[in-house]
Design brief:
By secondary structure, this protein is an alpha/beta fold. It has helices at residues 3-33, 64-78, 98-108, 125-134, 150-159, 177-197, and strands spanning 37-38, 48-52, 84-88, 116-119, 140-145, 163-168. It has a single domain (3-197), classed as 3-Layer(aba) Sandwich (Rossmann fold). It is 46% helix and 13% strand. It has a 6-stranded parallel beta sheet, with helices on both faces. α1 crosses α6 (177-197) and α4 (125-134) packs parallel to α5. The mean pLDDT is 90.
């Protein structure tokens, strides 16, 4: 085989490896952290639950995804499986406030305000995990989100020094489920890059330990 042909084959192999890696990486993360995902009835007790934000509407109404996360968190709180709720989401715009809407929902359901800690700068999963460790000084927690998101959240928080388990918040089918699954392949690859770089989020602030 000529040197030129070997070079072409090597280049094609490299391209194939690059194309396959995001899918292989997500599969590996999903497999490895699958052992740390529990149903609400089976999760080990923890002091703090981290609840990830998602879309809310202009009137403060929660989307189905984030409402199910909150309902799952409320069940764990009422059952005594967690004592504090760290509600983390996007509040980068004055008229858009995920953690504020989540906190209002929890208060309406009877969760005491002293057991709720909003995080208004959880702009993405990495920011939520980084701020949980460095701002709120969380050392261990239950992560509450949907199955499609849990492996990436577990990987990110674990890599940033938090001992975590996850609870599935899937309580119904979601209209955008196929899109969520597709997006997670790219997002899990970005999570790898995030934990390698370990950059500080754009918004930090003074420590606020969760008492």
């Amino acid at each position: 085989m000529s040197r030129r042909r070997k070079g072409c084959l090597g280049f094609l192999f490299l391209l194939a490896a690059i194309a396959v890696f995001p899918f292989a990486w997500r599969s590996a993360v999903t497999w490895y952290y699958g052992r740390d995902i529990y149903s609400p009835s089976d999760v080990p007790a923890e002091r703090i639950a981290i609840v990830y934000g998602a879309a809310v509407y202009g009137n403060g109404r929660l989307s189905a995804v984030v409402r199910d996360r909150m309902e799952t968190a409320i069940v764990l709180y009422e059952n005594g499986q967690v004592q504090k709720l760290l509600l983390s989401g996007d509040n980068r715009e004055a008229d858009y406030n995920e953690p504020g809407a989540m906190m209002a929902y929890a208060l309406q359901r009877g969760i005491p305000q002293e057991d709720i800690q909003p995080d208004y700068a959880g702009l993405r999963t990495y920011d939520t995990c980084y701020r949980a460790r460095h701002i709120f000084q969380v050392e261990s927690a239950v992560l509450i989100t949907q199955d499609f998101h849990l492996p990436r959240a577990l990987f990110t928080c674990s890599a940033l020094g938090i001992e975590v388990v996850g609870v599935s918040a899937d309580r119904q089918p979601y209209r955008a489920a196929r899109w969520y699954e597709t997006r997670e392949t790219a997002a899990t690859l970005v999570a790898l890059w995030d934990v390698i770089r370990r950059e500080r989020p754009a918004v930090l602030g003074e420590p606020i330990p969760i008492q």
